[in-house]
Predict the 3D structure of the following.
Amino acid sequence: MTNSSKLPLHQIDKAHIRDLVSQAKAGSKDAFDELVRITYPRLLSVSIRLTGNAEDAKDVLQEAYIRAFRSIKNYREEANFWNWMQAIIRNVASSLLARARRRRFEVIDGTESSDLSLTKNYMDQDIVDSIDLEEAMDELPSEMKRLVLLKDFYGLEHSEIAHRLSISEANAKVRLHRARNALKLRLEQRLPKR
């Protein structure tokens, strides 16, 4: 068996993929594992384009493979496997982004919630709308944006953020505080002058 994951995409044997899909449909976990190994690099790049970062992309792709494994028996073999997987990835990424939007600026338990109280009040009073929030987030440096997303949108604990970013928990708290202040300042700049 050739090492298909090392081949350029145009050289990956479509017949081999079709054969692996057929075997996976028949219940072969080894065939599905081989499909994952072959398709992972290409589908990871699709996932990164949809999510904007590698960590979320890996989570999305993992969930997409789980969904694909669960529904492989329903896969129509005349369909294009790449297109089928990309549709699953789009659905998973869309769900992830929708969850993140719903979680925006929920009241956060703990002392650091005061950092966002002003922003929460603006949201409640319809002074700052979601477009202002998105624009303010886009203006943040990427590291600050990532911190706010991880804590306030995905609800990760400081320890989880520290682990993902390979920094200390104390450093994660300090950086998050700075990021929230920067976001708050950008939102305040959008407020109508009184």
